[in-house]
Amino acid sequence: MKTTINQVKDYVGKDVTIGAWLANKRSSGKIAFLQLRDGTGFIQGVVVKAEVAEETFATAKRLTQESSVFVTGTIVEDTRSPFGFEMQVKEITLIHESVDFPITPKEHGTEFLMDHRHLWLRSKRQHAVMQIRNEIIRATYQFFNDEGFLKIDPPILTGAAAEGTTELFHTQYFDEEAYLSQSGQLYMEAAAMAFGKVFSFGPTFRAEKSKTRRHLIEFWMIEPEMAFVDHEESLHVQENYVSYLAQSVLSNCKLALNTLGRDLTKLENIKAPFPRITYDEAIELLKEKGFTDIEWGEDFGAPHETAIAETYDKPVFITHYPKDIKAFYMKPDPARPEVVLCADLIAPEGYGEIIGGSQRIDDLALLTERYQEHQLSGDAYNWYLQLRQYGSVPHSGFGLGLERTVAWFSGVEHVRETIPFPRLLNRLYP
How far apart are CA 423 and CA 430, in angstroms? Predict the structure, then answer.
């Protein structure tokens, strides 16, 4: 019976064949321990010289790292293994012999590993991170489908830059100027006016010349948009969504989390409701924590966000930022027009902003005024203004950065490990 490693639990006591690669091995004169991987997981294959053909044991002894094989044997339970099972190998068929695989069990520098990212992905640690990423994606679709959202795909190429061009990648679209999208939000607002509750999931691009552990040039965003929903209602959706993701990862990725050495109590604590603090309160808190130079009207950097997050044992919303440091489309607070109905969700443990969201301006005159204040490009977004001209309604939305969320849940330090092939300021290879 041919199967995969993640299905061997269904074949205890039975003989199966698995196509695999050799991740590592150790052996003595009479027994060989093969660490096998097949893309679905890792399992140990035990080859006992006295119990197999001479040729089989000889093959096991000479196998090199990342050689590909078909391995046949009996699946047995093994309580000593984190996986819980191992294979008692009976036969080995060599498919391809790998020679001088460059990533050995010894320590390698980050740049070396990034240059060999196409091979580094095979490691147990990277496998665990990608499993967590996959679970977050799966749970995202599950959550929004269950909540009655329709998935809509906004364009990646746009004809203008609604929030300025300094962080956008420029390209030529036949005889027109074009940009790679830094957010699908404006298009999702149009979709919400057609379908009520929508979400997108796709790549976005920011030409920020940043080298921090939180930044990528190309990353993936989940961007829900909701008609007839105000700021307060949107905050409830956000905290329920993040809580759902955390509990899904805990339930379905326990082995991966253990592989990464993640403190599970940190994830168990991610349950709605989340604490909230206004921008005004955040300024006062920062001054108390020694950031005496911070002034009202300044945006927060990574050290500020980390200091605020350390005050709480859960993710924390920072709400009601000054309108002058936020996007033109955010709705001012009717009770205090100098601030907007928005929130950033700051993750604990120094992982920074995970979500940015707001209630959108639904008044045409005010949106036009704000559009002009930001000196945005002429007629390119007339269609966006028309959303307030034909049946405008209160609406809200937010964006969650996938890679930062993967880093947070996984406990890895840098977002470069949370995407298969990261694009960084000085890296376009491989």
Answer: 9
Distance from C-alpha of 231 to C-alpha of 252, rounded to nearest angstrom: 32
User: Residue ranges per domain, the chain?
Assistant: 5-96, 118-417
Question: Is 195 buried (19+), middle (13-18) or exposed (0-12) by CB count in 10 A?
Answer: middle
Q: Are strands 218-227 and 395-401 parallel, antiparallel or unpaired?
A: antiparallel
**What is the spatial distance between Cα 404 and Cα 394, in angstroms, rounded to a whole number?**
29
Quickly list DSSP for 150-218. Answer: EE----SEESS-TT-STTS-EEEETTEEEEE-S--HHHHHHHHHHHSEEEEEEEEE------STT--SE
The SS3 call for residue 48 is strand
Enumerate the β-bridge partners of residue 41: none
Buried b (16+ CB within 10 A) or exposed e, 408-423: bbbbbebbbbbbeebe
Tokens 């039975």, located at residue: 14
Q: Does domain 5-96 have CATH number 3.30.70.260?
A: no
CA distances for 264 relative to 115, 249, 252, 267, angstroms: 32, 10, 13, 5
Residue ranges for the chain with pLDDT beneath 70: 161-166, 377-378
pLDDT at 204: 95
- For the record, the structure tokens of 27 come out as 């052996």
3-state secondary structure of 21: strand
240's tokens: 């329920």
Per the listing, tokens 């074009």 go with 178
Going by their DSSP bridges, the two strands 150-151 and 197-205 should be labelled as parallel
Six token digits for residue 417: 């490990």
Terminal-to-terminal C-alpha distance of the chain: 37
Pair of tokens at residue 56: 């089989």
What pLDDT sits at residue 378? 64
Q: Which CATH superfamily is domain 118-417 in?
A: Bira Bifunctional Protein; Domain 2 (3.30.930.10)
Question: How far is Cα 60 from Cα 64, in angstroms, rounded to an integer?
Answer: 9
For the packed helices 302-309 and 279-288, what is the interaxial angle rounded to 10 degrees?
Answer: 90
Distant-in-sequence, close-in-space partners of 305: CB < 8 Å, separation ≥ 6: 346, 352, 353
Beta bridge partners of 81: none
| The pLDDT value given to residue 380 | 77
Residues in the chain: 430
